[in-house]
Amino acid sequence: DEVIKLLAVDLGASSGRVMLGLYDGKRIEMEEVHRFANQPVELHGHLYWDVLQLFHEMKQGIRKAAREHGTLTSVSVDTWGVDYGFIDRKGQLLYAPHHYRDQRTAACAPILEELLPPDEQFRLTGNQSARINTVYQLYADLEESPWLRETADRMLLMPDLFHYLLSGTAAGEQTIWSTSGLLAAGSAAPSAKVMNRLRLPLSLIPELVPAGSVTGQLLPALQEELGTGPLQVIAGAAHDTASAVASIPYGPGAETAAFISCGTWSLAGMETEQPVLTDQARDYGFTNEGCFGGGNRLLKNITGLWILQETQRGWAQAGEPVSHQEAVRLAAEARSEGYAAAVIDPDDVLFSTPGDMPGRIAAYCGRTGQQPPVSKGEVILTILQSLASAYAQTISELETLTGQGIRAIHMVGGGIRNELLCQLTADATGKEIIAGPAEASATGNIAVQLAALGAVKASALRELVAQSYTLVRYYPSR
Ligand code: LFR
Predict the structure, then answer these.
(1) Cα of 241 to ligand 1 centre, how many Å?
(2) Taking every annotated instance into account, which residue ranges of this chain make up the domain Carbohydrate kinase FGGY C-terminal (predicted)?
(3) ipTM
Protein backbone atom coordinates (compact mmCIF):
# COMPACT_ATOMS: atom_id res chain seq x y z
CA ASP A 1 0.00 0.00 0.00
CA GLU A 2 1.13 3.50 -0.69
CA VAL A 3 1.88 5.65 2.34
CA ILE A 4 -0.03 8.93 2.55
CA LYS A 5 2.04 11.82 3.89
CA LEU A 6 0.33 14.78 5.52
CA LEU A 7 1.45 17.78 7.52
CA ALA A 8 -0.05 19.06 10.75
CA VAL A 9 0.97 22.53 11.89
CA ASP A 10 0.24 22.73 15.62
CA LEU A 11 0.73 26.15 17.22
CA GLY A 12 0.94 25.89 21.01
CA ALA A 13 1.50 28.19 23.96
CA SER A 14 5.28 28.48 23.65
CA SER A 15 6.20 26.65 20.48
CA GLY A 16 4.86 25.65 17.12
CA ARG A 17 5.60 22.49 15.23
CA VAL A 18 5.26 21.11 11.75
CA MET A 19 4.54 17.41 12.17
CA LEU A 20 4.61 14.81 9.44
CA GLY A 21 1.88 12.18 9.64
CA LEU A 22 2.43 8.91 7.78
CA TYR A 23 -0.58 6.70 7.10
CA ASP A 24 0.05 3.24 5.68
CA GLY A 25 -3.55 2.05 5.62
CA LYS A 26 -3.37 0.66 9.16
CA ARG A 27 -1.64 3.09 11.47
CA ILE A 28 -0.66 6.71 11.78
CA GLU A 29 2.94 7.50 12.59
CA MET A 30 4.02 10.98 13.58
CA GLU A 31 7.36 12.64 13.13
CA GLU A 32 8.43 16.16 14.08
CA VAL A 33 9.80 17.97 11.03
CA HIS A 34 10.31 21.48 12.35
CA ARG A 35 9.91 23.16 15.73
CA PHE A 36 9.99 26.90 16.36
CA ALA A 37 9.18 29.43 19.03
CA ASN A 38 5.69 30.89 19.31
CA GLN A 39 6.04 33.83 21.65
CA PRO A 40 3.64 36.77 21.64
CA VAL A 41 5.31 40.07 20.83
CA GLU A 42 4.77 43.02 23.13
CA LEU A 43 4.53 46.36 21.36
CA HIS A 44 3.58 49.63 23.05
CA GLY A 45 1.86 47.83 25.88
CA HIS A 46 -0.10 45.42 23.69
CA LEU A 47 0.41 41.76 22.88
CA TYR A 48 0.41 40.45 19.32
CA TRP A 49 0.86 37.27 17.36
CA ASP A 50 4.11 37.20 15.40
CA VAL A 51 2.09 36.17 12.38
CA LEU A 52 4.61 36.73 9.60
CA GLN A 53 7.40 34.99 11.49
CA LEU A 54 5.08 32.05 12.12
CA PHE A 55 4.16 31.93 8.45
CA HIS A 56 7.86 31.96 7.62
CA GLU A 57 8.48 29.04 10.00
CA MET A 58 5.54 27.13 8.51
CA LYS A 59 7.09 27.53 5.11
CA GLN A 60 10.44 26.30 6.43
CA GLY A 61 8.72 23.19 7.76
CA ILE A 62 6.80 22.50 4.56
CA ARG A 63 9.94 22.96 2.45
CA LYS A 64 11.90 20.62 4.69
CA ALA A 65 9.18 17.97 4.66
CA ALA A 66 8.94 18.09 0.86
CA ARG A 67 12.71 17.83 0.49
CA GLU A 68 13.08 14.93 2.91
CA HIS A 69 9.88 13.00 2.32
CA GLY A 70 8.76 13.62 -1.27
CA THR A 71 5.13 13.95 -2.26
CA LEU A 72 2.89 15.41 0.42
CA THR A 73 -0.88 15.22 0.19
CA SER A 74 -2.17 17.94 2.47
CA VAL A 75 -1.59 20.39 5.29
CA SER A 76 -3.75 21.72 8.11
CA VAL A 77 -3.15 24.20 10.94
CA ASP A 78 -4.54 24.06 14.49
CA THR A 79 -4.13 26.64 17.25
CA TRP A 80 -5.68 27.68 20.54
CA GLY A 81 -9.08 29.33 20.36
CA VAL A 82 -10.46 32.86 20.23
CA ASP A 83 -7.79 34.94 18.37
CA TYR A 84 -8.20 36.39 14.86
CA GLY A 85 -6.93 38.81 12.24
CA PHE A 86 -8.74 41.13 9.83
CA ILE A 87 -8.28 41.20 6.07
CA ASP A 88 -9.31 44.03 3.80
CA ARG A 89 -11.15 43.88 0.46
CA LYS A 90 -7.94 43.10 -1.38
CA GLY A 91 -7.27 40.23 0.99
CA GLN A 92 -4.43 41.97 2.77
CA LEU A 93 -3.85 41.50 6.45
CA LEU A 94 -4.83 44.62 8.43
CA TYR A 95 -2.34 44.97 11.28
CA ALA A 96 -0.98 42.24 13.53
CA PRO A 97 -3.56 40.02 15.25
CA HIS A 98 -3.75 40.44 19.01
CA HIS A 99 -2.94 37.68 21.47
CA TYR A 100 -5.72 36.79 23.94
CA ARG A 101 -3.60 37.81 26.91
CA ASP A 102 -3.70 41.38 25.61
CA GLN A 103 -5.55 43.59 28.07
CA ARG A 104 -7.47 45.80 25.62
CA THR A 105 -10.76 44.11 26.42
CA ALA A 106 -10.73 45.22 30.07
CA ALA A 107 -11.85 48.81 29.44
CA CYS A 108 -15.03 48.08 27.51
CA ALA A 109 -15.94 44.71 29.03
CA PRO A 110 -18.36 46.35 31.51
CA ILE A 111 -20.18 48.10 28.64
CA LEU A 112 -20.38 44.88 26.68
CA GLU A 113 -21.73 43.08 29.74
CA GLU A 114 -24.39 45.69 30.21
CA LEU A 115 -25.56 45.12 26.65
CA LEU A 116 -25.14 41.37 26.90
CA PRO A 117 -24.83 40.00 30.43
CA PRO A 118 -22.61 36.91 30.94
CA ASP A 119 -25.64 34.73 31.76
CA GLU A 120 -27.21 35.61 28.48
CA GLN A 121 -23.95 35.08 26.59
CA PHE A 122 -23.92 31.56 27.96
CA ARG A 123 -27.56 30.88 27.17
CA LEU A 124 -27.26 32.20 23.61
CA THR A 125 -23.85 30.83 22.63
CA GLY A 126 -23.13 27.97 25.03
CA ASN A 127 -19.76 29.59 25.70
CA GLN A 128 -18.73 30.50 29.21
CA SER A 129 -18.32 34.26 29.28
CA ALA A 130 -14.62 35.16 29.40
CA ARG A 131 -12.77 38.32 28.54
CA ILE A 132 -10.41 36.45 26.25
CA ASN A 133 -13.30 35.39 24.00
CA THR A 134 -13.44 36.66 20.43
CA VAL A 135 -16.67 38.51 21.15
CA TYR A 136 -14.93 40.70 23.76
CA GLN A 137 -11.91 41.24 21.52
CA LEU A 138 -14.00 42.16 18.49
CA TYR A 139 -16.19 44.53 20.45
CA ALA A 140 -13.08 46.26 21.83
CA ASP A 141 -11.46 46.53 18.39
CA LEU A 142 -14.55 48.11 16.84
CA GLU A 143 -14.94 50.54 19.73
CA GLU A 144 -11.30 51.61 19.64
CA SER A 145 -10.88 51.58 15.88
CA PRO A 146 -14.32 52.34 14.40
CA TRP A 147 -12.80 52.70 10.91
CA LEU A 148 -12.45 48.92 10.91
CA ARG A 149 -16.14 48.90 10.04
CA GLU A 150 -15.14 50.36 6.66
CA THR A 151 -11.71 48.87 6.08
CA ALA A 152 -12.07 45.34 7.41
CA ASP A 153 -13.68 43.02 4.91
CA ARG A 154 -13.53 39.86 7.00
CA MET A 155 -12.14 38.47 10.22
CA LEU A 156 -10.40 35.11 10.17
CA LEU A 157 -9.63 33.13 13.30
CA MET A 158 -5.94 32.23 13.43
CA PRO A 159 -6.06 28.80 11.76
CA ASP A 160 -8.43 30.25 9.13
CA LEU A 161 -5.96 33.07 8.58
CA PHE A 162 -3.02 30.70 8.06
CA HIS A 163 -5.11 28.53 5.72
CA TYR A 164 -5.94 31.71 3.83
CA LEU A 165 -2.29 32.75 3.59
CA LEU A 166 -1.42 29.27 2.29
CA SER A 167 -4.27 28.82 -0.18
CA GLY A 168 -5.83 32.21 -0.90
CA THR A 169 -9.22 30.83 0.17
CA ALA A 170 -10.96 32.46 3.12
CA ALA A 171 -13.19 30.15 5.16
CA GLY A 172 -14.04 29.85 8.84
CA GLU A 173 -13.72 26.43 10.43
CA GLN A 174 -16.55 25.58 12.79
CA THR A 175 -14.73 24.10 15.81
CA ILE A 176 -12.49 27.14 16.17
CA TRP A 177 -15.48 29.43 15.64
CA SER A 178 -17.31 27.58 18.41
CA THR A 179 -14.82 29.13 20.87
CA SER A 180 -15.66 32.69 19.80
CA GLY A 181 -18.75 33.51 21.82
CA LEU A 182 -20.32 34.65 18.55
CA LEU A 183 -22.13 31.53 17.30
CA ALA A 184 -25.59 30.43 18.38
CA ALA A 185 -25.23 27.49 20.79
CA GLY A 186 -24.81 24.18 19.00
CA SER A 187 -25.05 25.77 15.57
CA ALA A 188 -22.70 26.73 12.79
CA ALA A 189 -24.15 30.20 12.39
CA PRO A 190 -23.58 33.49 14.17
CA SER A 191 -26.08 34.34 16.89
CA ALA A 192 -28.17 37.16 15.42
CA LYS A 193 -28.97 38.35 18.94
CA VAL A 194 -25.32 38.64 19.91
CA MET A 195 -24.39 40.35 16.66
CA ASN A 196 -27.30 42.83 16.82
CA ARG A 197 -27.06 43.62 20.48
CA LEU A 198 -23.37 44.49 20.16
CA ARG A 199 -23.68 46.06 16.70
CA LEU A 200 -21.17 43.65 15.23
CA PRO A 201 -21.26 43.52 11.41
CA LEU A 202 -22.35 40.08 10.17
CA SER A 203 -20.41 40.65 6.96
CA LEU A 204 -17.14 40.25 8.88
CA ILE A 205 -17.81 36.58 9.46
CA PRO A 206 -16.55 34.35 6.65
CA GLU A 207 -18.40 31.36 5.27
CA LEU A 208 -18.21 28.69 7.97
CA VAL A 209 -17.31 25.15 6.95
CA PRO A 210 -17.36 21.92 8.98
CA ALA A 211 -14.13 20.52 10.43
CA GLY A 212 -12.56 18.29 7.82
CA SER A 213 -13.21 20.37 4.69
CA VAL A 214 -10.73 20.64 1.85
CA THR A 215 -10.87 24.39 1.30
CA GLY A 216 -8.16 24.91 -1.30
CA GLN A 217 -4.69 24.15 -2.57
CA LEU A 218 -1.33 25.55 -1.71
CA LEU A 219 -0.95 28.63 -3.93
CA PRO A 220 1.07 27.89 -7.08
CA ALA A 221 3.71 30.46 -6.12
CA LEU A 222 4.19 28.70 -2.77
CA GLN A 223 4.32 25.28 -4.42
CA GLU A 224 7.17 26.56 -6.51
CA GLU A 225 8.93 28.35 -3.67
CA LEU A 226 8.72 25.35 -1.34
CA GLY A 227 9.26 22.60 -3.88
CA THR A 228 6.04 20.75 -3.19
CA GLY A 229 3.56 19.42 -5.71
CA PRO A 230 -0.07 20.42 -5.50
CA LEU A 231 -0.89 20.21 -1.82
CA GLN A 232 -4.43 20.30 -0.44
CA VAL A 233 -5.13 22.81 2.29
CA ILE A 234 -7.60 21.37 4.77
CA ALA A 235 -9.63 23.07 7.46
CA GLY A 236 -9.26 20.23 9.97
CA ALA A 237 -10.48 20.41 13.55
CA ALA A 238 -8.67 23.73 13.66
CA HIS A 239 -9.13 24.30 17.40
CA ASP A 240 -6.29 22.45 19.14
CA THR A 241 -8.67 21.09 21.78
CA ALA A 242 -11.13 19.90 19.10
CA SER A 243 -8.23 18.09 17.41
CA ALA A 244 -7.13 16.60 20.72
CA VAL A 245 -10.66 15.37 21.42
CA ALA A 246 -10.94 13.96 17.88
CA SER A 247 -7.92 11.79 18.70
CA ILE A 248 -9.39 10.17 21.81
CA PRO A 249 -9.35 6.40 21.30
CA TYR A 250 -12.71 5.67 22.91
CA GLY A 251 -13.41 1.96 23.16
CA PRO A 252 -16.73 0.33 24.00
CA GLY A 253 -18.75 2.40 26.46
CA ALA A 254 -17.66 5.72 24.96
CA GLU A 255 -20.87 7.35 26.25
CA THR A 256 -19.69 6.86 29.81
CA ALA A 257 -16.15 8.14 29.27
CA ALA A 258 -14.85 11.60 30.07
CA PHE A 259 -11.66 13.22 28.81
CA ILE A 260 -8.92 15.43 30.18
CA SER A 261 -6.66 17.10 27.65
CA CYS A 262 -3.54 17.97 29.65
CA GLY A 263 -1.15 20.68 28.66
CA THR A 264 -0.48 24.22 29.80
CA TRP A 265 -4.26 24.27 30.16
CA SER A 266 -6.29 21.26 31.22
CA LEU A 267 -9.60 20.80 29.46
CA ALA A 268 -11.82 18.34 31.24
CA GLY A 269 -15.14 17.31 29.76
CA MET A 270 -17.43 14.90 27.99
CA GLU A 271 -18.90 14.70 24.55
CA THR A 272 -22.65 15.24 24.51
CA GLU A 273 -25.10 15.31 21.64
CA GLN A 274 -26.41 18.78 22.48
CA PRO A 275 -24.97 21.77 24.31
CA VAL A 276 -25.78 21.82 28.03
CA LEU A 277 -27.11 25.30 28.74
CA THR A 278 -28.44 24.99 32.27
CA ASP A 279 -27.69 27.52 35.01
CA GLN A 280 -25.86 24.78 36.86
CA ALA A 281 -23.51 24.18 33.92
CA ARG A 282 -22.88 27.90 33.74
CA ASP A 283 -22.28 28.23 37.47
CA TYR A 284 -19.86 25.31 37.52
CA GLY A 285 -17.93 27.15 34.79
CA PHE A 286 -18.49 24.82 31.85
CA THR A 287 -18.45 25.81 28.22
CA ASN A 288 -19.86 24.16 25.09
CA GLU A 289 -17.79 23.85 21.92
CA GLY A 290 -18.15 21.94 18.66
CA CYS A 291 -16.64 18.59 17.72
CA PHE A 292 -15.34 17.16 14.48
CA GLY A 293 -18.26 15.26 12.95
CA GLY A 294 -20.83 17.27 14.91
CA GLY A 295 -21.80 16.92 18.52
CA ASN A 296 -20.77 18.95 21.50
CA ARG A 297 -17.81 19.22 23.84
CA LEU A 298 -19.02 20.07 27.32
CA LEU A 299 -15.84 21.06 29.09
CA LYS A 300 -14.16 23.19 31.66
CA ASN A 301 -10.87 25.09 31.35
CA ILE A 302 -8.67 24.33 34.34
CA THR A 303 -5.27 25.89 34.82
CA GLY A 304 -3.05 22.99 33.86
CA LEU A 305 0.65 22.27 34.06
CA TRP A 306 1.28 26.00 33.79
CA ILE A 307 1.92 26.25 37.54
CA LEU A 308 4.50 23.46 37.45
CA GLN A 309 6.12 24.82 34.27
CA GLU A 310 6.37 28.23 35.87
CA THR A 311 7.81 26.71 39.08
CA GLN A 312 10.44 24.87 37.07
CA ARG A 313 11.26 28.05 35.15
CA GLY A 314 11.84 29.85 38.46
CA TRP A 315 14.11 27.11 39.80
CA ALA A 316 16.10 27.06 36.57
CA GLN A 317 16.53 30.82 36.77
CA ALA A 318 17.82 30.45 40.31
CA GLY A 319 20.42 27.99 39.01
CA GLU A 320 18.65 24.90 40.42
CA PRO A 321 17.01 23.34 37.38
CA VAL A 322 14.72 20.36 37.92
CA SER A 323 14.12 18.19 34.86
CA HIS A 324 10.81 16.53 34.09
CA GLN A 325 11.99 13.11 35.32
CA GLU A 326 13.54 14.65 38.40
CA ALA A 327 10.29 16.49 39.18
CA VAL A 328 8.26 13.29 39.03
CA ARG A 329 10.87 11.45 41.14
CA LEU A 330 10.99 14.15 43.83
CA ALA A 331 7.21 14.30 44.08
CA ALA A 332 6.91 10.51 44.24
CA GLU A 333 9.50 10.52 47.01
CA ALA A 334 7.58 13.12 49.02
CA ARG A 335 4.48 11.00 48.53
CA SER A 336 6.08 7.77 49.72
CA GLU A 337 7.47 9.61 52.73
CA GLY A 338 3.84 10.23 53.64
CA TYR A 339 3.73 13.96 52.93
CA ALA A 340 0.04 14.94 53.01
CA ALA A 341 -0.03 17.52 50.26
CA ALA A 342 -1.65 20.91 50.76
CA VAL A 343 -4.46 21.67 48.31
CA ILE A 344 -4.49 24.83 46.24
CA ASP A 345 -7.09 25.99 43.74
CA PRO A 346 -5.13 26.08 40.48
CA ASP A 347 -7.65 28.54 39.07
CA ASP A 348 -7.07 31.11 41.80
CA VAL A 349 -5.96 34.39 40.18
CA LEU A 350 -2.82 34.17 42.29
CA PHE A 351 -1.48 31.57 39.87
CA SER A 352 -2.61 33.12 36.59
CA THR A 353 0.37 35.33 35.87
CA PRO A 354 4.09 34.50 35.57
CA GLY A 355 6.09 34.68 38.78
CA ASP A 356 7.30 32.97 41.94
CA MET A 357 4.90 30.03 42.20
CA PRO A 358 6.36 28.36 45.33
CA GLY A 359 6.02 31.73 47.12
CA ARG A 360 2.43 32.10 45.98
CA ILE A 361 1.62 28.54 47.00
CA ALA A 362 2.96 29.35 50.48
CA ALA A 363 0.84 32.51 50.54
CA TYR A 364 -2.22 30.55 49.46
CA CYS A 365 -1.58 27.98 52.20
CA GLY A 366 -1.23 30.77 54.77
CA ARG A 367 -4.52 32.26 53.64
CA THR A 368 -6.31 28.89 53.86
CA GLY A 369 -4.75 27.69 57.12
CA GLN A 370 -2.63 24.91 55.62
CA GLN A 371 1.00 23.93 56.20
CA PRO A 372 2.90 25.17 53.14
CA PRO A 373 5.10 22.66 51.29
CA VAL A 374 8.80 23.06 52.03
CA SER A 375 11.00 20.84 49.88
CA LYS A 376 10.91 20.85 46.08
CA GLY A 377 9.27 17.42 46.11
CA GLU A 378 6.54 18.73 48.42
CA VAL A 379 5.94 21.74 46.20
CA ILE A 380 5.63 19.56 43.09
CA LEU A 381 3.40 17.06 44.84
CA THR A 382 1.18 19.88 46.07
CA ILE A 383 0.75 21.14 42.51
CA LEU A 384 0.05 17.71 41.01
CA GLN A 385 -2.23 16.66 43.82
CA SER A 386 -4.18 19.91 43.50
CA LEU A 387 -4.59 19.45 39.77
CA ALA A 388 -5.87 15.92 40.39
CA SER A 389 -8.35 17.30 42.95
CA ALA A 390 -9.57 19.93 40.50
CA TYR A 391 -10.02 17.20 37.87
CA ALA A 392 -11.94 15.06 40.36
CA GLN A 393 -14.25 17.92 41.20
CA THR A 394 -14.89 18.60 37.50
CA ILE A 395 -15.58 14.93 36.78
CA SER A 396 -18.13 14.77 39.56
CA GLU A 397 -19.77 17.98 38.27
CA LEU A 398 -19.97 16.33 34.85
CA GLU A 399 -21.77 13.37 36.37
CA THR A 400 -24.24 15.74 38.01
CA LEU A 401 -24.81 17.72 34.83
CA THR A 402 -25.25 14.79 32.49
CA GLY A 403 -26.89 12.39 34.94
CA GLN A 404 -24.40 9.90 33.64
CA GLY A 405 -22.01 7.80 35.72
CA ILE A 406 -18.49 8.10 34.34
CA ARG A 407 -16.70 4.80 33.94
CA ALA A 408 -13.33 5.82 32.60
CA ILE A 409 -11.34 8.95 31.83
CA HIS A 410 -9.22 9.34 28.74
CA MET A 411 -6.21 11.52 29.44
CA VAL A 412 -4.46 12.93 26.36
CA GLY A 413 -1.83 15.57 25.63
CA GLY A 414 1.74 16.19 26.76
CA GLY A 415 0.78 16.19 30.45
CA ILE A 416 0.32 12.41 30.43
CA ARG A 417 4.09 12.06 30.21
CA ASN A 418 3.82 12.84 33.92
CA GLU A 419 2.85 9.34 35.13
CA LEU A 420 2.41 10.55 38.69
CA LEU A 421 -0.27 13.02 37.57
CA CYS A 422 -2.11 10.17 35.85
CA GLN A 423 -1.93 7.99 38.96
CA LEU A 424 -2.99 10.83 41.27
CA THR A 425 -5.94 11.48 38.92
CA ALA A 426 -6.96 7.82 39.12
CA ASP A 427 -6.78 8.05 42.93
CA ALA A 428 -8.61 11.37 43.23
CA THR A 429 -11.42 10.43 40.84
CA GLY A 430 -11.65 6.76 41.73
CA LYS A 431 -11.87 6.02 37.99
CA GLU A 432 -9.88 4.05 35.49
CA ILE A 433 -7.54 6.30 33.50
CA ILE A 434 -6.69 5.47 29.90
CA ALA A 435 -3.72 7.59 28.90
CA GLY A 436 -2.76 8.34 25.28
CA PRO A 437 -1.97 9.75 22.87
CA ALA A 438 0.43 12.39 24.20
CA GLU A 439 0.56 14.00 20.76
CA ALA A 440 -3.19 14.49 20.83
CA SER A 441 -3.65 17.74 18.88
CA ALA A 442 -1.25 16.82 16.08
CA THR A 443 -2.67 13.29 15.86
CA GLY A 444 -6.24 14.58 15.76
CA ASN A 445 -5.22 17.12 13.15
CA ILE A 446 -3.78 14.35 10.93
CA ALA A 447 -6.70 11.98 11.58
CA VAL A 448 -9.28 14.59 10.57
CA GLN A 449 -7.32 15.30 7.38
CA LEU A 450 -7.43 11.59 6.53
CA ALA A 451 -11.21 11.71 6.90
CA ALA A 452 -11.41 14.87 4.77
CA LEU A 453 -9.40 13.16 2.04
CA GLY A 454 -11.70 10.14 2.15
CA ALA A 455 -8.77 7.89 3.10
CA VAL A 456 -10.42 6.82 6.38
CA LYS A 457 -14.09 6.88 7.39
CA ALA A 458 -14.82 9.47 10.06
CA SER A 459 -16.36 6.73 12.20
CA ALA A 460 -13.09 4.75 12.07
CA LEU A 461 -10.74 7.45 13.37
CA ARG A 462 -10.89 6.48 17.05
CA GLU A 463 -10.04 2.90 16.17
CA LEU A 464 -7.20 4.10 13.97
CA VAL A 465 -5.70 6.10 16.85
CA ALA A 466 -6.10 3.12 19.19
CA GLN A 467 -4.16 0.99 16.65
CA SER A 468 -1.45 3.62 16.36
CA TYR A 469 -0.48 4.14 20.00
CA THR A 470 0.15 2.09 23.10
CA LEU A 471 -2.33 3.25 25.71
CA VAL A 472 -1.41 3.10 29.39
CA ARG A 473 -4.01 2.35 32.06
CA TYR A 474 -3.98 3.56 35.65
CA TYR A 475 -6.32 2.32 38.37
CA PRO A 476 -7.25 3.88 41.70
CA SER A 477 -4.87 2.49 44.32
CA ARG A 478 -7.29 2.79 47.23
C1 LFR B 1 -6.06 25.17 24.76
C2 LFR B 1 -7.09 26.21 24.36
C3 LFR B 1 -8.37 26.07 25.10
C4 LFR B 1 -8.87 27.46 25.02
C5 LFR B 1 -7.63 28.24 25.35
C6 LFR B 1 -7.63 29.65 24.89
O7 LFR B 1 -4.87 25.37 24.07
O8 LFR B 1 -7.35 26.18 22.98
O9 LFR B 1 -9.26 25.10 24.56
O10 LFR B 1 -9.91 27.71 25.88
O11 LFR B 1 -6.60 27.51 24.70
O12 LFR B 1 -7.89 29.75 23.54
Answers:
(1) 7
(2) 259-452
(3) 0.95
